[in-house]
Amino acid sequence: MKEVAAFEVGIKLGALFHQFIGAPVSLKNAEILEKAMESCVMLQPYVVSAEVRINREKLKEKLSGFNYCSLDGEMLQARVEVEVEGEKVTGVLEWDEEKRYPLMRLIR
Amino acid sequence: MKEVAAFEVGIKLGALFHQFIGAPVSLKNAEILEKAMESCVMLQPYVVSAEVRINREKLKEKLSGFNYCSLDGEMLQARVEVEVEGEKVTGVLEWDEEKRYPLMRLIR
Amino acid sequence: MKEVAAFEVGIKLGALFHQFIGAPVSLKNAEILEKAMESCVMLQPYVVSAEVRINREKLKEKLSGFNYCSLDGEMLQARVEVEVEGEKVTGVLEWDEEKRYPLMRLIR
Amino acid sequence: MKEVAAFEVGIKLGALFHQFIGAPVSLKNAEILEKAMESCVMLQPYVVSAEVRINREKLKEKLSGFNYCSLDGEMLQARVEVEVEGEKVTGVLEWDEEKRYPLMRLIR
């Protein structure tokens, strides 16, 4: 079951990233976008909690001349917990500066 | 300029549809998703107003056994107005039952 | 490690679904779209094999008056195998008619 | 009609960008991804021609430690021509270095 729970949390993080990357974002709508993303994750099977954050510092660095930018892997952070038949597993998504990659990993 | 305004409103509707189709949606988060989508459109250049609606009747028909579904073209409705150098143009997105297609068109 | 492998295969299926749902598809480009989707999955860490199929019967049923439609969960099928430190795990994505849901599951 | 043609080409560019941004890409699959994106645009109403290019230099700069990256606005280029009742209009998508923005514009 631990394995199934790990599978399920992987689905949620992969889904979150690829559904929302590219969405127009600025300091104005970052919070509502975070809430909407969390609400989407919470609907999916086995999810116990979901926390999605858009890194405001990274966001500011990326703003275009039109004062917004596309949501990307450098600014998106998430933590999702699922429970499958009593087994709880948590996964996180966070930009890895060294690998230059939006790394997803299981945490304990 | 009318032409440029029409081009710009086309961009917004095409972007909206392809960014958010597939997002997990239910009666629980439809409203926050609508607000988030509107906030994304409002950030884009030349947009004066944006109204996004998820058709609740269609949504109910599509709910899976997990009590949510993927946002699709049958339930997504939008109206976006742009203004480019004084020229205002409005475009709408609405499911066309006959063509079975999420039709986007200019309105006057 | 079995757990990590299961997590990784979950990421790939969630990513595939949410990246490509909504893409314009018809009998004309279904094959190139399948190949492109497979090529995207194959780039991701730990993937050993990826098979993506668009169900042609479902596709035909969904064609709009413009002779194409949006790729959706009813027609998308996939099988992805990952290997993490010797542990191999396979996951599949397939429409579940009863649940009306694009179900992802581990197989043995 | 010029206006409608401009609207239609806007739809195609907005759709292309927001459908495919985030897709895994490397030097290995850039060509098949270009072909798949072109095939998707070609299915849409009124499209006469579609050319999609992934800038290989930009792509190389963005590669992660896993030797691929997410397709983004800095590397995606497109040119789409539509014809509506005899009126032809062409739109392009290209990264604007100064505005740090994936600019879409009509060309003559």
Folded structure, characterized:
Chains A, B, C, D: It holds the Pfam family DHNA. Chains A, B, C, D: It comes from Geoglobus ahangari. Chains A, B, C, D: Keywords: Lyase. Chains A, B, C, D: This is Dihydroneopterin aldolase. Chains A, B, C, D: Substrate binds at residues 8, 104. 4 copies of one chain form a homotetramer. Chain A is an alpha+beta fold. Chain A has one domain (2-106): 7,8-dihydroneopterin aldolase (MptD) (Pantoate--beta-alanine Ligase, Chain: A,domain 2, 2-Layer Sandwich). Chain A contains 3 helices and 6 strands, in the order αβαβαββββ. Chain A has helices spanning 2-20, 30-43, 56-62; strands spanning 24-25, 47-54, 69-70, 76-84, 87-96, 101-107. A 4-stranded antiparallel beta sheet of chain A has the order 2-4-5-6. A two-stranded antiparallel sheet of chain A has the order 1-3. In chain A, β5 (87-96) and β6 (101-107) form a beta hairpin. The mean pLDDT of chain A is 97. Chains in contact: A-B, A-C, A-D, B-C, B-D, C-D. At the B-D interface, α1 of B face α1 of D.
CATH superfamily heading of chain A: 7,8-dihydroneopterin aldolase (MptD)
The end-to-end distance of chain A, rounded to whole angstroms, is 16 Å
Structural class determined from secondary elements of chain A: alpha+beta
Oligomer: homotetramer
* CATH topology (level 3) name of chain A: Pantoate--beta-alanine Ligase, Chain: A,domain 2
Q: What is the annotated CATH architecture of chain A?
A: 2-Layer Sandwich
Family (chains A, B, C, D): Belongs to the archaeal dihydroneopterin aldolase family.
Subunit structure (chains A, B, C, D): Homotetramer.
Enzyme class (chains A, B, C, D): lyase
EC number (chains A, B, C, D): 4.1.2.25
